[in-house]
Amino acid sequence: MECGPVTGETKKMSFMKNYSKIATTLCAVSLCSACERPPEPTETNGTVIGGFNGEANPFDRSRVPVVLKDQSAVSFAKGSVLPWRSQHYSASAVLGADRKLPRPVFVAYTDDQARQRLLTAHKALFGNVAAGKPTDRGEGIGLDLAEGMAWVAKDSGAITLRRKGEDGISSVVGPEHAVQLAAAQMAALGLFRLSEHESLDLIGVNATMSASWDPQPDGSMAVVLVFNSALGKDVTEYVSGHTVIFGRRYRGVPIEGGSLKAVLDAKGTLVGVLQEWREISGETPDGIAIDPDAVVESRRNPATANLKLESRICGYFEDSFVGRKQTSPGVGCLYRNVVPGERGLGRLSLDFVTMTSDASVPLTGTPLVSEQQ
Amino acid sequence: MRYRKLMLTHSLAITALVLGVTEGADAGSSNVEHELVVYSLKSYGTYGSPNWKPTIVPWFTNMDPYQDFWSSMYNCTGTECAHSYSARYENSAVSVNQMATDSATQTNRGWSGSDFVVFYGHNTMIQPRWQEEFDLWRYNAEFYTWYHFNVPDWSAWGTSSEHYTYHRYRVYDASSSNAYAVFYAYNPFTSILIGKDFPKTGDWYTENTWNQGMADTRQNHFAGELEWILADGCNAVTVANPAGTTALQLGVSAWDKSWDGLHMVMGHYYETDTSRLPNLGGYASDLKFGGYVQPAYFDRHSCSPPDGKEAGYCQPSAIEIQPSLCTPPLCWTIYMNSDRWNPNEMSDVTGDYRYKTKWNVAQ
Fold first, then answer.
1. Chains A and B: how many Cβ contacts under 8 Å?
2. A339 at the B interface (CB within 8 A)?
3. Full-model pTM
């Protein structure tokens, strides 16, 4: 985990210290007997809490991290190692005696600044393709492009870029290759800078698969074979693109909800950029007071008390819809409780509760009131 | 896209205003290629215990497309916005009759008269692939009874050994080459069944409540008006196995029976949950700023399956139609790379056709 220097008032916060206490702390916060809830998983499927190779980082998934090769990508990520994010963790594990987390502050863009950012972003991905005149459409400012999309959310300044790419069978070989390509090309765009205490991690890599079907006279479907030159044979389905989902951490604690996505076409070229987080300008001097674990636990829906817990995420949260206004990430816990006998959208009953009594750090954003309106 | 739509009359417009059905000052555009309907089911009707279908709790309220997605699409007036006669329906208002109506007004809007249908609720597909026990309501001559962990094989559902009964007529002929996509409605034991409802030609019958005793005859089809359907629940667009490694014909088999004038259907091919569905508010902004309908939907997913779940968990999928002569690599996709909400100007595929499927899978 990459940790920045602790300065000023934040010296009071010792939340990141002493990882050797993590196991003890997690045991203490489970409160199983107090609320008569079923025991928590340590990590899903019984994986021991902690990171890869025995490193005690509660926020890392047990998966070999990606070591970046490209130097510009290393600069972009502020480090050469990209860990995968765990899906079961608690920031309580790194709280110090003062039970405070730092309070990051999001950057707020004026409409003029957002417009300028849009033009810069457009040039970064579309090059010399004419941008035209920016258009204000409520929650964002965008360009009318013949071969793609470019818009920037008001207030958050978050960028969305997408253009057509090469279709067909992907030349990208596996998730690590996709991460290497994505990180290098995102770095080359020059659009994103992490603040002093931010670091990158990996939420996931998704491959886009393709297949084709021909209807038959009897109503059945016949799959269309496609020649894969790399394999030297016909295939029925193939990978045609990738999406790398980067996450970020603030002083080592993940910020859930937000992400930065890089979309690669079949040739591995960056064709899409989705900034679904708000930039961080700094932090307030006083931080966020985290309520006692028992208080946080008491906010859960009593109806979930007897359900088995699939996972619990306790940390920072921001609204993934960047068209909503948020000044700081909230701090909360998302509990995924398994409903017996159900599948699909009824399989989980969610508890999403705040970890603080400070009402000034809500877990989600609010509708944007644009300058235009 | 049908090249001309039925223009709404002044009298209808005046009626709508008198009834006070417009939502806010900035309520939709005059763009008749942007007729949107959103159906959102969080709670379902009751019959006994448990509920007919389990309650759906969005991660937080505004993630429901009834909220942010709708607000972004409708609370504006430019040509990129949804038409002023677009509509949204929630919970008890999401009935079979509401979805199957051929009406296309704001006060009464169904699928067939809309450009874009967004459904947020329970979906599935028969013939399902899972060979495991499951629960269901089973009809026993006079009433329904809940069978809890007593039905041995989900993969038999919709066959002669375990009829699908949540429809006007029982379904017992489902198979991998004769599948049906299911959109559960609010009223107990009712559903829209793609492949059964909205056939390409001819009449069909729907039932709005399980004990109605009388069917409604339908003649409206997808032809022309409707371009995109988004089934934002579970596996209504089953184009791959749960691991995402193997293409399945299930989805195209189901949708082909109703496909007429559609450009694309989107959704998921396996399970998902509400904490892993994207807030479609960002998707709405993408659409308004000229984003491609399918890639934008895929891109907004930030899905990473939990440990122990298949790699297809919470991952999006889509089906498009294309001319059968359009053979890779000359033509890999038609709509998926080009079809936009703004502007909505691509014409329908006619003549011989084939289907292209896409899905994401976690690596």
1. 242
2. yes
3. 0.90
